[in-house]
Write a structure and sequence with these properties.
The protein has 14 helices and eight strands. The protein is an alpha/beta fold. It has a domain of 213 residues: Rossmann fold (3-Layer(aba) Sandwich), CATH 3.40.50.1820. 44% of the residues are buried.
Length: 335
């Protein structure tokens, strides 16, 4: 028995050592890769605008006097993942605007990590201020939908219509208590070196980008080399791993219920609300979209067959057609 126990302990020690070495190697590789300043690495197709406490990277297309449509990405993405939508909206005469929500893309990261949904919502409203846009249609995807709804609730008079795409909102019961994150997870995220090593291994590791993207889409064939390259481009920005590690608690262990997580918030919305959902979404299943449609009477839900969590890249033609259809339904005076 002692011999078996000793062998088991040795094996466990070896496995832990190998795991630590692997995590350490990926963290070292991330530090070696993340050397470019965001202002130098950002593509020339966009610009930086002051949005509250950060300089946000913004990409625009279409006429300056067109009806504004502001697009907000989800986790791990950035403004370029909206490229097809930007192009179609511009050709249709809209002023299309896609932003990078920190810590993703090329936007400045806040000096004090503040990534709560309300903090991000304030930045979205600040972008409207910086661009001198009195009112806009807001489009929020996945985890970016929460900050988008927060912006709507902060400044409802600034929003002509709200479009939510496979929204990861985490809506709970009315006036629910703040969630109590599991203690082991909170403890893990509190250990910055370990947390950042895990981020470097699985989230900011270019070798893992394709596999990660494939988990969010219905057909792995849509994870093309070109699309994978788009997601990888910002991974050379200095401090990306550390910043995303600082953002993770806002995703995994929030300590308060955001307004966008309360059902009553949706009943108060007065602007048109449109929902686009992939029928094969396994991240935010269609049942969540149907519940959201019930919470906001009058909301229009459109589903996309054979599509998962990222409709705008899985079937951009169909997605853009739905988006343009929604926009066309708005009264001209509201645009």
């Amino acid at each position: 028995m002692k011999r078996i126990l000793r062998a088991a302990l040795v094996s466990a020690a070896v496995l832990l050592g190998l795991a630590a070495a692997t995590l350490g190697a990926f963290r070292w590789e991330a530090a070696r890769r993340e050397v470019r300043l965001a202002t130098e690495a950002a593509p020339p197709t966009g610009r930086f605008v002051k949005a509250g406490d950060v300089d946000l990277f913004v990409q625009e297309a279409g006429p300056a006097d067109g009806a504004p449509v502001l697009l907000v990405h989800g986790t791990g993405a950035w403004s370029e993942t909206w490229r097809a939508a930007l192009s179609v909206l511009a050709l249709s005469g809209y002023r299309a605007i896609a932003i990078d929500l920190p810590p993703f893309g090329y936007s400045q990261r806040p000096s004090t990590p503040r990534y709560g949904k309300r903090d991000q919502g304030r930045r979205i409203v600040a972008v409207l201020d910086a661009l001198k846009i009195p009112r806009a249609v807001l489009v929020g995807h996945s985890f970016g939908a929460g900050p988008t709804v927060e912006a709507v609730l902060l400044a409802p008079d600034r929003v002509q219509a709200l479009v939510l795409v496979d929204a990861a909102l985490g809506i709970g019961p009315d006036d629910g208590a703040a969630p109590k994150p599991p203690l082991p997870l909170r403890a893990l995220l509190a250990v910055a070196p370990l947390r950042d090593a895990l981020v470097a291994t699985f989230l900011t590791n270019p070798l893992f980008t394709r596999r990660l993207l494939e988990q969010f889409i219905a057909d792995p064939a849509h994870a093309t080399d070109a699309r994978v390259a788009v997601y990888q481009r910002p991974l050379s920005v200095r401090g990306s791993t550390r910043a995303i590690g600082e953002w993770l608690p806002a995703l995994l262990t929030p300590t308060e219920v955001a307004a966008s997580e309360r059902p009553a918030s949706y009943r108060r919305l007065t602007m048109p609300v449109y929902l686009i959902w992939g029928e094969r979404d396994t991240i935010t299943p269609l049942a969540q979209g149907r519940r959201l449609a019930r919470l906001r009477p009058g909301a229009i839900l459109e589903t996309m067959p054979q599509v998962g969590h990222i409709p705008q890249i899985e079937d951009p033609a169909a997605f853009n057609a739905l988006l343009l259809k929604f926009l066309a339904e708005l009264p001209p005076a509201r645009l």
